Design the sequence.
């Protein structure tokens, strides 16, 4: 049995309230300086959300993907500096692969490792990674692909535009703590991570839009709110169109992950949300003027993470190329059928 | 605020795959008869025999009551049919406007006589309707229309001029927005919608050639046209509100992102024929698919809202704005990605279709309300105006 939608909304509201209270410039700066938001993590942990997508019989909350849209949006809106989205994705993938999901759900990486016998090698970027903690990764390709649970070795902090911690580590013939065949032929975790990132992006984009509207209505120049200038109205409308398309693509992917999880469903969401990032952030900064690029103003916390997130879990170019290659190989006669299938039609 | 727009997911009916298969089979018979140039005209392309055949299959007026020739099917079944038609570039122009907005308007607010007379003819593909909004001096500022209907005994006398009326030269009827009381300063007050039988004396239709070299739209002059008592559609003086609620149907459908779609399968085949696709071509195709999927989701959800009697005016403006921007990029994409065309030449299926689409593409963000007007509606919805 899955929680009903009201419960899902309640959870998102709860998260909104928590983040509204706790995620401020001070906390974000602290995390960007390398100190984890331990207290916040503990509170989120207590809500049981890391196990959201794990079925009840496997010890989870049994929520459907289409019920966690609000949670992802909240994570994006507040640019919450923790790995909840990644852990929800990891928990889902582990449960789907029939692995036992520990209460302390592991972190996750979208990077693909190589598999030799049962040893794992390769480089991985781990959001909020800490040596000694555990990470779920994909190793090997196609039929042979496995989900592997690994202990995180020492690595180096990767400087990023978003400035949330990213640990870069090297696995050299590492022995997994646990592993199972990937239920989607090596696609489960990358797809899940692409969908959650797209959801965060949609949330952050809608926040940038709301901030632009708000600033447009309050900042006065030439004796009136700048939002009364048609040029500003049209910029914000352009932003709104992109925000709506990103949100719709995410909604589509969440439904897709419930009905028939696939890399294509994830691709649509990550591409469309990723494409919206530049126009939306450009307009947000244009509307906010100089104050919007100051360290002190909150806007850059949103736009920098947007630029970060669109690059992660496969950027829109990589996903587009893959989707495009498949479509070109399928031939023109199949193209419309592909559009219908990608948007949930039959 | 999480988002100024709502797109509530809908459940497509179980018959979806079967219905889709039926339409595809039907279209496979018809589309080879049409040139790439004609297909490039999408829903403004017109072929009476085709529309009659569509009507015979029960695919016009699908949601309307049987007593008026309709088929009492759901709005989402209709959605499946119309999107298949558009994707194939079928020349649906003879029934498109009547099926999309004139018929539903008559059904909603029309008189029994209007329903009995016109709806069955629309359903059979015999009656074409046109939209009489724009006038020489009234474009975006629609409330300034000057065409006037004055009471005359039981009926009305109509004088004035409409312009840019798509397919009026093929149409039997127009639903026109006219002034029935007051003057231009009264703006939205005093406007009404009238149904004009275009065969009446005093109606003159002059074709206007456009840059494709053809004439798709017209100037329609009314010189003291005598209209019967039954010409008024809906409530006198409520023309503005009635017309605006029609616009959500006009702006949110797949016709706002699929008019250029038939180029894409040809483009994909051309790219494939040139060998292993390069990275940028593959990206452009993949990205377009994702954009189309998101638009289709928005549009299907909005169809559900319309079906439930909600008024998604904001959502419709967004779909039109985002959709036409994508449509307009498609002929440019062909130019960017299709290898080997002779410079500027219109030779071969893809080049011919591209030429048709490219010469109409500027109108995508004009017809049905301009891009700037859409953005204005969105800004208003977000509280900036
Ligand atoms: C192919 C085609 C088919 C058509 N078919 C029909 C039809 O069947 N029936 C019908 O009634 N009409 C039809 N139209 C007319 C269409 O609705 C109008 O073209 C449209 O409403 C714009 O009016 P206009 O052309 O007079 O341009 P204008 O309103 O003069 O606009 C010119 C420019 O000024 C801008 N502008 C105007 N007002 C504002 C403002 N307040 N703020 C910012 N910018 C503004 C516009 O966006 C545009 O860029 C058709 C048009 C085309 C191109």
Sequence:
């Amino acid at each position: 049995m899955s929680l009903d939608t009201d419960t899902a909304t309640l959870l998102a509201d709860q998260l909104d309230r928590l983040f509204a209270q706790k995620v401020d410039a001070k906390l974000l700066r602290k995390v960007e300086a390398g100190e984890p938001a331990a207290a916040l993590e503990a509170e989120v942990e207590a809500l049981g959300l890391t196990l959201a997508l794990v079925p009840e019989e496997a010890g989870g909350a049994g929520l459907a993907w289409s019920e966690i849209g609000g949670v992802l949006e909240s994570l994006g809106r507040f640019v919450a500096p923790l790995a909840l989205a990644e852990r929800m994705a990891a928990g889902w993938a582990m449960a789907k692969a029939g692995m036992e999901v520990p209460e302390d759900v592991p972190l996750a990486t979208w990077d693909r490792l190589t598999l030799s016998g049962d040893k794992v090698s390769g480089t991985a970027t781990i959001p909020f990674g800490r040596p000694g903690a555990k990470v779920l990764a994909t190793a090997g390709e196609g039929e042979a692909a496995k989900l592997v649970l690994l202990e995180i070795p020492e690595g180096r902090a990767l400087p990023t535009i978003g400035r949330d911690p990213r640990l870069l580590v090297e696995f050299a013939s590492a022995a997994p703590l646990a592993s199972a065949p990937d239920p989607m032929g090596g696609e489960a975790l990358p797809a899940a991570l692409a969908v959650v990132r797209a959801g965060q992006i949609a949330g952050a984009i809608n926040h940038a839009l709301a901030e632009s509207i708000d600033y447009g209505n309050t900042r006065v120049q030439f004796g009136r709110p700048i939002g009364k200038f048609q040029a500003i109205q049209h910029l914000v409308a352009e932003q709104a169109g992109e925000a709506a398309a990103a949100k719709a693509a995410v909604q589509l992917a969440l439904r897709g992950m419930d009905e028939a999880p696939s890399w294509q469903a994830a691709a649509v969401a990550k591409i469309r949300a990723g494409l919206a990032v530049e126009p939306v952030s450009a307009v947000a900064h244009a509307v906010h003027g100089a104050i919007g690029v100051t360290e002190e103003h909150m806007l850059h916390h949103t736009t920098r993470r947007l630029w970060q997130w669109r690059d992660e879990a496969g950027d829109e170019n990589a996903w587009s190329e893959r989707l495009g290659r498949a479509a070109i190989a399928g031939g023109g006669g199949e193209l419309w059928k592909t559009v219908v299938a990608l948007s949930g039609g039959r | 605020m999480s988002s100024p727009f709502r797109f509530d997911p809908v459940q497509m009916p179980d018959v979806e795959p079967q219905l889709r298969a039926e339409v595809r089979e039907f279209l496979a018979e018809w589309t080879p008869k049409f040139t790439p140039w004609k297909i490039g005209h999408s829903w403004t392309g017109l072929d009476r025999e085709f529309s009659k055949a569509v009507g015979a299959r029960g695919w016009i007026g699908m949601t309307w009551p049987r007593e008026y020739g309709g088929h009492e099917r759901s709005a989402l079944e209709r959605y499946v049919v119309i999107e298949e038609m558009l994707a194939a570039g079928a020349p649906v122009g003879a029934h498109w406007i009547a099926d999309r907005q004139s018929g539903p308007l008559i059904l909603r607010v029309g008189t029994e006589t209007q329903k009995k007379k016109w709806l069955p003819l629309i359903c059979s593909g015999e009656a074409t309707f046109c939209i009489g909004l724009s006038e020489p001096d009234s474009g975006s500022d629609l409330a300034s229309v000057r065409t006037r209907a004055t009471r005359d005994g039981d009926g009305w006398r109509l004088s004035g001029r409409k312009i840019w009326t798509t397919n009026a030269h093929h149409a039997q009827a127009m639903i026109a927005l006219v002034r029935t009381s007051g003057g231009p300063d009264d703006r939205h007050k005093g406007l009404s919608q009238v149904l004009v039988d275009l065969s009446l004396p005093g109606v003159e239709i002059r074709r206007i050639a456009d840059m494709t070299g053809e004439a798709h739209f017209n100037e329609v002059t009314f010189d003291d046209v005598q209209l019967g008592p039954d010409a008024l559609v809906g409530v006198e003086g409520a023309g503005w509100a009635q017309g605006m609620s029609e616009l959500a149907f006009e702006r949110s459908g797949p016709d706002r992102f699929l008019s250029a779609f038939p180029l894409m399968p040809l483009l994909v085949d051309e790219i494939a024929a040139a060998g292993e696709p390069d990275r940028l071509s593959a990206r452009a195709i993949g990205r377009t698919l994702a954009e189309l999927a998101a638009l289709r989701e928005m549009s299907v959800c909005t169809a559900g809202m319309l079906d439930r009697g909600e008024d998604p005016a904001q959502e419709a403006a967004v779909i039109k704005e985002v959709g036409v921007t994508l449509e307009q990029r498609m002929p440019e994409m062909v130019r960017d990605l299709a290898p080997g065309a002779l410079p500027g030449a219109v030779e071969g299926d893809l080049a011919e279709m591209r030429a048709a689409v490219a010469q109409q593409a500027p109108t995508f963000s004009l017809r049905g309300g301009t891009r700037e007007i859409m953005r204005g509606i969105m800004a208003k919805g977000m509280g900036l105006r």
The mean pLDDT of chain B is 96. Residues 241-381 of chain B form a domain with the Butyryl-CoA Dehydrogenase, subunit A; domain 3 fold (CATH 1.20.140.10). Chain B touches chain A through 60 residues (CB under 8 Å).
